[in-house]
Design goal:
132 residues, mainly alpha, 4 helices, elongated
């Protein structure tokens, strides 16, 4: 018989996986390995999306996300990644204290930073291809 995890355990496992991908991405960025960085960010974003899905089915009617979105005009990658790292650490703390809505909010905001980083990466890649 296969033992199934409850949703909170799945969320925590997904957040741990996301943090692992984030750390690998930051290391790749420090080592100037753009391809490994981009791959890691993609995997990180996928884990965040899965966590958000799990939150959404757990907290179906309790979210008003309109006030959660950060709106950075220009993004500096390393400070943004550090902010995302802090948001995930806080989310895990909220999960441990049973504050699922607060954890959801942190992961949601982290995803927005990540999307902005991915947009920035795509823009740089397009510009590099135009120069060729």
């Amino acid at each position: 018989m296969v033992e199934t995890m409850n949703v909170n355990e799945k969320i925590l496992k997904t957040l741990k996986n996301a943090k692992d991908y984030l750390e690998k991405s930051m290391t790749a960025l420090n080592n100037k390995n753009d391809n490994l960085f981009a791959d890691g960010i993609w995997s990180f974003a996928a884990e965040l999306e899965y966590a958000l899905f799990l939150f959404s089915i757990t907290l179906q009617n309790e979210n008003n996300k309109t006030h959660w979105k950060p709106n950075p005009k220009k993004i500096d990658v390393m400070p943004s990644l550090s902010e995302v790292q802090s948001l995930l650490k806080e989310a895990e703390g909220f999960m441990a204290n049973g504050k699922l809505l607060e954890a959801y909010k942190n992961v949601y905001v982290a995803r927005h930073y990540t999307l902005k980083i991915q947009d920035d990466l795509a823009k740089k890649k397009r510009e590099a291809l135009k120069k060729k």
